[in-house]
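Next comes a single protein record:
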Amino acid sequence: MPFENRSSAPGLEWIAESFPEVLSQRMASSAVYAMGRADRANAFDRSGIPATVLPSRATLYRIADQMGADYVVLGSYNFDGKTFSSAAQLLDMKKLHLYPAVESSGPLTDLIRVQTVLAWLLLQQMPSHSAVTREPFLASWPPIRLDAFENYLRGVLAVDRQQKIHHLHDAIKLDPGYTQAMLELGRTYYDNHEYESAVPWFARVPKNDPAAGEANFLLGMSEFYRGNFDKAFAAFNYLLTRLPLTEVYNNVGVVEARRGHRAAAIQNFTKAMNADPNDDDYRFNLALALARSGDNAAAARQLKEDLQRHPGDGEAKSLFDMLTRGQPSSGGNSAGAASNSLLPSNQPRLPLERIKRNYDEASYRELDLEMRRFNEARLAGMNNHDQAAYHLQHGKELLSQEMTEQAENEFREAVRIDPASAPAHAQLALLLEEKGDVSNARLEAQNSARLKPNVDALLVMARLDMKQDQLQSAESEVERALALEPSNVAAQALKSQIAARQTGAK
C-alpha cells in the first residue's frame, strides 16, 4: 500500500507511492510474488474506490482478500528536516495477524536505501524468508539517483501526457541507465500509437534486465504495427526463450503467417491453443492458418469446436460457413492482407489473424510460483540425489523447448542440491558453452569430469581447447570420450576436425 505521509515538510507527497514501487521490486523473488502499484490500482478500480483514497482497514482487508494476497504491507514515513524515518508492518491475511513494526531511517538523500533496508526487514518476518544477510542484500541492488527516481515516479503518476513524457525524459537524462524509466517512456508513446517513437526506448532495455520481458513484447508489437515483421519476430522469439507465454506463441504465429511461413505459424498457434484451449483467438488463428495451407477440413474442425465454446463469434462463424460451403481457400498465397489481395475477385476474402495486445507476465509468474511450491512440497520427502535428478530432467525438458534461462536455473538448482552430481555439472557446462560463457563452461565441465568421467563434459573441454588452438589437449580429451563410448558420433566428428587442423598446422 502507499505509505502514510506524517511529515509536514512540503513536496514529499510523491514518496507515498515510492514505497510500493521499491518494496515490490526488492521483495519479489522465486519464493515471493509481489503485487505492486499497478495490481493494486486495478483492484481498487474494480472495487470502485478512487486510487487517491486511503481505505479503512476493513476495506483494505476485503480488497486484499479478493486479490488473493497472503500479506499486505502497510506503513508510514516522516521527515523532521534532518532525518527521514519509515515504519512498516506485515498483515498476515490468513492468520489475521499484524506483525510488529520494523523501522528504517537515514538522510532523505538515502531514501531508496532506507526503503531497501525496510524490504529486507519485512522479508525476515516471512516464513519463506531469504537466507541472504543484510549487507549483500543491500549491495545487490544497483544505485538509483534520487532526483531521477523522483522524476520517474512523478512521470508514472502524472495524468497529463506531456508532463509524463517530460518527467520520464528528465529521469533518463539524470540516470541514462534507468531501464524502468525507458520502459515507461516507451509505453507512453506506444499507448498513443506513436510506435516509431516507442521503438528506441524499448530497444534500449538490456536483455538481462527484469524489465526486458515487457520491453520486448511491446517492441514486437510496435514493430508489428509498423509492418516490420522480421523485427517483430526477433523481439517475440527472444521473449519465448525467457517465458513460455501463450500470447507470445500466438503473436509469433501471427508474424510468421504475415511472413508467409505457414508451417511455423501452425506450430506456434497449436502451442498457444494447447496451453489455453478456452481462448477463442488461438483456435481461430490455428483454423485460419490451416485454411491458408489448404487443409479446409482440419480448419473447419477447429472452427466447429470454437463455435461450440463461443457461439457468438461472428467472424469464426463466417469463416466456418465459407469453408464448409466448399469455397476454395487461399492455400497458394501468402498470409495476411497481402494474400487477400491476390484472391480472385469472385472469392471471399479471408480474415486476418488475431494478435494479442496484452502482456501478462504477472499471471505467469504467479502460476509458476504456485507450481514451484507444489513441486517443493512433493520433493521435500526425497533425498538430495533424487531432488537433483528431478531438477536435471526438468531442465532438459525446458531446454528442448528453447527456454534456456529457465533450464539454466534448473541445472544450477540441481548442482546446488547435489554438488556431487556429474550429470548436472555436465548439462550446465553444455548450456554455458552454448551461451559463450567459456570460463564457467570449462569450470563446470572440469568439475563434472573430475566427479565421474563422461562424454558430455570431455567434449565440452575438447571443443573449448580446439577454439583456443590447444589441439594436443583437445585430442586427449576426445580420446578419453571415445574410450567411454567408441561409437559416439559427436566424438568421432570432433576427432576428425582436430586431425584436419593438425594436418593443416603442419
In short: The first helix runs from residue 15 to 27. Residues 4-141 form a domain with the Rossmann fold fold (CATH 3.40.50.10610). The mean pLDDT is 87. The two ends are 72 Å apart (CA to CA).
